[in-house]
Every structure is written in C-alpha cells, then in structure tokens.
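Sample 3 of the quickstart, ligand beta-D-fructofuranose:
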Amino acid sequence: MIYKANKFILDNKHKVNPRFRLNFHLMGEYGWINDPNGLIEYNGYYHAFFQYNPYDSVWGNIHWGHAVSKDLVNWDHLPIALAPDLPYDKDGCFSGSAIEKDGKLYLVYTGNSFIEINKEQKKRTQCICIAISDDGINFHKYNGNPVISTEHIPAESSKTDFRDPKVFKRRDKYCMIIGSNDGHNQGQLLLYESTDMLSWHYKGIMAKGDEFTGDNWECPDYFELDGRDILIVSCENKDESQKNTSAIYMVGKFDYEKCTFESNESHLVDYGFDFYAPQTFLDSKNRRIIMGWMHSWETLTPTQSEGHNWAGALTFPREVKLESNSLVFKPVDEIINFRQNEYVIENMLIDREYCLATNGDCYELEVVFDIGKATEVGIKLRTGEIEETKLSYTAIDNIFCFSRRKSGAGPGGEKIIKIQPINNQIHIRALVDKCSVEVFINNGKYVMSGLIFPKEDSTGIKVYSKGESFIKHLKKWDIITKNPISMIPI
Ligand code: FRU
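Result:
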C-alpha cells in the first residue's frame, strides 16, 4: 500500500493546481492532510509526519505522510511512512507521536478499524500501535501490535474514542498520554507507562474536562516549561452551539505518582479560524516548538471545491515560552534568514487610510501602532478592488478582530479577542503565505490563524487609523524559499 500511494503521488502531482499553494509551510504533495504527527528532531533533521490522504483532497484512507527539514522553513517530502494495511489499522493510521530509543525512531500511532457487527452495524475500535525505523525513512510495524488493544482500555473510558498517543520519557520510564472521554460527553486523558516502549501498563486518568471543554479530547500533548507543567488538548464540540473544535492549553501541576494534573484555567492556543490538533517537540537547541493543523473540520476550502487536488497545511513552527502563567508563541527565528526586500516605515502619524508602496502574497510584516487618541487602528492585507483581509483594534472595547468578510472566495467571518495594549501600543506580526495568514499579537500573547482565498492580484497592503495614531515602525519582508524536493523513490 505504501508503494501504491507513493506511485499515485508521483503520477498525479502534476495535477495539483499551484494557485493557492503555500511557499513556506508544509503541505502534502497531493491530496489532503490533517494533524501533525510524530514531530521530532532525529539524526540532524526535523521530521514532521502528518495525517494524509494521498489520493484525494478530502479526509479518508488515512496514511502517515512524512517530510524533513533542516531549517523548519523548507520541507522536503519523503516516502509515505505508514499505510493502513493491517487488520488493526485497516481503516486509518490515525494520529500519534514519535520518540527516539537506542538510535531508532519509534512511531506510536492509533490503529483505527471498523468491525462489522451485522449487515447494518459496524463498531469502531481504536488501539495503540508501534512502527520502528533504523534510518528514519522506512518503518516496519511491530509484530506485537497492537501494544494497547481494545480489551485493555479501562472500564471508565470510552472504547471507541481512544487515540492520539503522545509519548515522552520521564526518568527511566516511557509515558504515554491518550485522548478519550468518559462515555458521558466529557473529555479525559489516560496515562500509561512502559520500560521498553512495547509493553504498557495503565496508570489512571490523568486529567478530565468539564462542560466547557468539549465532549471528547484528542491529540493530547504534555511538556514541562520553566518548572511548570503544560497540557494541551484538542476538544471536540467545544462550543455546543457551533459544534466546533478547538485546541486549549492548561498551565498547572502534574503529579506523576498520583496521576493527577491540577490547573485552574484553560486558554485557546490560537484564536483564529483554522488551527487544530497541535503537537510540540523539544529540539536540540532546547526550544519547545509547536505546529498545528491549519485548516478546520468545519469548512470546505476552494482548493477542495474547485478541484485543486490538495487541502490542508501545517502552521509555521512556533516557539513556545511561558510568561507570567500564560504561553506566548513566536515564529521560529529561522524565518529571519529568508527575509528579502525590506520595506520600512518609521514614525509616521496617520489619521486615515494609506496604501503602502509595497505589496505581495508571501511575506512577513511587523507593525507597532501607538494608539494615541484613535478609536480604531488596523492593517489590511491582500487588498484588491473589493477584497481585503482586515486586522483591526478598537480602543473603546479593546477588541482585536481578524476579519475575512471581504477576503475573497472561501469561508468568511470574523474572529475577535479582547486584548490589553502594551503602553498604549498594539504590536502585530503577520506571516502571509498565499492562502494563509498567521497573526501574532502583542509579542505572541495571542495568535490567530486563518485561511483566505483572494484573487491573485489582490496583493495590496493598507494601514488605517480612525482619529490620530502613530506608526512607530512598520517592516515588511518578502519570504523567499526554494521549491520542495520530492524524495519518493521511483
Ligand atoms: C484530530 C483527529 C484525531 C485523529 C485524526 C484522524 O483532528 O480527529 O483525533 O487521530 O484526526 O485523522
């Protein structure tokens, strides 16, 4: 099945419409991608695996796609790592993580399969499986799979939602956190441990959600940062009215022996439209890096509806830091090496709308507004005759808004958050890459990501102010990268 999928990609990738393809973000060579999986630095390369349907631009037939990078900016495609080709994973190699053990790369993933009960009914089962590689390219599934099967799921947990293992090492033990729910519409995480990565023992329920955190927890992540414990989970149906999915983080205290995680509050990881199932890893520079899936379950994009033969991308990698009990996110510094054609404005008083003498569809932009007495300040990206993607701040209610009402084709709407200016200033840093916009507000205290599908010639950039404000500085750089190389053997 791996051979068949690789061959299909090679034979069909010329049919991918390049129109909205991103330049410095990871996508599949053809077809659909969702969650990042198995993020790890191994043998000198950053590896990113991802949920992958190589055959179509919609979810289904889930494999693990694979790409590598030296700089977290340019990604090259490797052959598919896992295909759903065994009874226990025949209906999908679902999400999971990676770890290095004795020089080998271990992938820990979810085997998804449907068992027929009778002609009308099928039962979904999920189990935990392992695949191992000596070279980081070719993986063989462990013949003792599954390492945690349905029979070993404890009674206090759902049997049908049991997925997305995240492994990490703690002292001499391997630990695994699995996303699930309690069977009564509340998300929960199960903790398992092992000494050899192959036989796993259940330790207990490590964390449980409430009525505000969805009815099932997916793609858990756990890490320590500056002595605090951080838990990230992706919540299904978080907002009952909208049936949407969102990723949240909690800063708290993890008591491993008692198997408890205590935390008083949760926050969204990203306040935008298109961000889910993030995963983190620690790199050799000791940075905690997070990448999410930049798309959403709820929407259909023009690349899907108009036959572009691809959908979904991963976010640009973000470095995670802790600042007074909250996480802050910033694009990894490697992006700086790809900046070209610097455009700068300094100390400019504004009281209306200005069109900048620069434009583009693939760039990084940074602007600091001194709000002064203005009631609203903002920046408009990808502007055209009637199109614009607006990032605005209104002083009266402290609302920051990412509006794609006039962004062009595809889903529209607005996302808002209440923020606090810093010394009466608003800092905005935006990564714009063809059909994606990632906005880092006030030095990464809030992030908003969203996909937009403007016309090709909507490349203008405008700044505006209602009432007088002051642009302390505005900088913009084109981001120039190389085309990805495909390393799929013919
Ligand atoms: C999250 C998710 C995971 C699952 C995968 C399937 O987006 O639903 O829980 O493993 O996608 O592709």
